[in-house]
Amino acid sequence: MAATKVQRHRAIARLIAGAELHSQHELQRELAAQGIRTTQATLSRDLAELGVLKGAGGYRLQDGTPEPSGDALDALARRLLAGVEQAGNLVVLHTPPGQASALAVQLDRSSMRGVVGTIAGDDCVFVATRTASNAKELVRRLTVAASPARRKATA
User: Fold this and answer.
1) How far apart are CA 16 and CA 13, in angstroms?
2) Contact 107, 118 (CB under 8 A)
3) Whole-number Å distance between alpha carbons of 11 and 33
4) pLDDT per position as a tens digit, 22-77
5) What's the predicted TM-score (pTM) here?
6) Are 28 and 49 in the same domain?
């Protein structure tokens, strides 16, 4: 019997919380051991939807601390944003390796005004906005959120 998306997400969260997993292949193998068979493409989407982060210690779930609406994007930008560039109505966000997807997912969830969509690579997110002024506002917001003063104030 095929696992539902909710069942997969719960299993992924349990596995990541309980073991140090460093690759999608390892995670896929652990899921299979629990009777959950999935493709790499589906697993990749699941990880992005869950906002799973990947670092030197393997996969980890984002901090589950509830944050006021609209602040989750700022908090993630504070932790992950390494650089921001604007080119017309496009914004390029730079992150540490393996972190772009988490930032893109949070940006998609934020329903920020003027954001049409995102594309994430390993360490870079391309954000399409409706207008150059929407892009400028996004750059301003994320730059303020990621500023060193904000990092110290929230640490």
Assistant:
1) 5
2) yes
3) 11
4) 999 999 999 999 999 999 999 988 888 888 888 878 888 776 533 333 567 888 88
5) 0.56
6) yes
